[in-house]
Amino acid sequence: MSSFKDFSFAGKKALIRVDFNVPLNDAFEITDDNRMRATIPTITKILKDGGSVILMSHLGRPKDGPTEKYSLKHIVAHLSKLLGVEVQFANDCIGAEAIDKAAALQAGQVLLLENLRFYKEEEKGDEAFAEKLSKLGDVYVNDAFGTAHRAHASTAVIAKFFEANNKMFGLLMESEVLSAEKVLHQAKKPFTAIIGGAKVSDKILIIENLLDRATDIIIGGGMAYTFMKARDGKIGNSLCEDDRLETAKEILEKAKQKNVSIHLPEDSVIADKFASDATTKNCPSDAIPDGWMGLDIGGKAIDIFSAVINKSKTILWNGPMGVFEMEKFQNGTKAIALAVVESTKNGAFSLVGGGDSVAAANKYNIADKLSYVSTGGGAMLEFFEGKELPGIAAVRE
To answer: Is the N or C terminus of the chain more exposed, i.e. has fewer CB atoms within 10 Å?
Structure first.
């Protein structure tokens, strides 16, 4: 594997797997271009070196081949604007047009291929499809951390068609991997993991893996009530996975054995219905009356969690503390976000990953005040579950 920074792309055609799976509205306008912006430095470096760039990505989940709604042509104008270069577009990713346009590409030019998932072979990890893609460029660059956990043709299989010195991570992928490895393998203690979200089942593996690494694990969001019930707490109508109660008990027991402090919310903001106009009150999290549900952490929990975060030297944040999309139930998530900012300011390394956490960081305008905000939701989760990501392994082989 080559080092991207040290590689000269002069006269080379760089085939880059990017993650331009951006949200579009009904008028096909991009509503969040963060993923596109994140990979601009990689593309710019290649162009400055005197190379040309062929970009490949997926968009959405098309089920039956080419679909207008999922065409990458909708992002060409905005990408051209971000790069300051007129981006060419091929109406296919492996057909004659793609081959001809890639072959004719001159130094300083950029070509975007049509959605890879218009071919079922992409998600199947088809070798013949990957080989056709590989013939379009001289060098393979994977800069799509958001898809690194998928063993797809363009993210994992394609790498085998390039010599070790002609395949590498882009700048975004490099920083994602380095930041994640810093937290997982080189974390300074105390190391606090803040795990939120609705379901225990989504986060079991990450919590179990972190029991060997973290000193403190803060659990918030809907999943906290499964743990509360596992400790014989009364949780009213709060979200609970009854089939995960034993798992929750085992996690609490393992944590005790490994001397890891698990922090559950002492109190909650409870509501009489799941709605923005619900009646609310504060209540101990283990004494929620029937007919009421916990939708955010309460003031005591905020103070306790913030104190833990404040003394941390490494922080991983994955998942909100409550239903932060509703104004009445956003206080917990916002307070924890600000606590992470404060700790970062005091020298802690903070990594935020997962769609909802990133959305919260952007909502409260704190993304630039954290050490690193990951672009990969599912990939980041699987990385911290201890799994080897195919997109990373393929380039390193």
So the answer is: C
Q: Name residue 315's beta-bridge partners.
A: 192, 350
pLDDT band at 199 (very low <50, low <70, confident <90, very high): confident
Catalytic residue among 60, 108, 299, 378: 378
Catalytic residue status for 35: yes
pLDDT digits (tens, 9 = 90+) for 53-74: 999 999 999 988 899 999 999 9
Determine the 3-state secondary structure of 23 from DSSP.
coil
- Report the DSSP pairing between strands 52-56 and 13-17: parallel
Q: Indicate which residue of 199, 234, 249, 313 is catalytic.
A: 199
Q: Rounded CA gap, 174 and 45, in Å?
A: 14
pTM for the predicted model, two decimal places? 0.88
Q: What is the pLDDT of residues 28-55, one digit of tens each?
A: 999 989 889 999 999 999 999 999 999 9
- Please tell me whether residue 33 adopts helix, strand or coil conformation: coil
- For 168, the token pair is 């590498």
* Residue 199 among the catalytic residues: yes
In terms of Cβ atoms closer than 10 Å to its own Cβ (0-12, 13-18, 19+), residue 138 is middle
Alpha carbon distance 28, 75 (integer Å): 8
Q: Is 318 helix (H, G, I), strand (E, B) or coil?
A: strand
Active-site residue, 363 included: no
Supply φ then ψ for residue 24, to 5 degrees.
-120, 145
Write phi, then psi, for 295 (nearest 5 degrees).
-120, 0
Please pick, among 182, 355, 363, 386, the residue that the annotation labels catalytic: 355
CA torsion angle 129 36 349 364 (round to 10): -130
Compute the half-sphere exposure of residue 147: CA atoms within 13 Å on the CB side of its CA.
29
pLDDT in tens, 339-385: 999 999 999 999 998 768 888 998 999 999 999 998 877 888 888 88
Instruction: Check residue 298 and report its DSSP letter.
Output: -
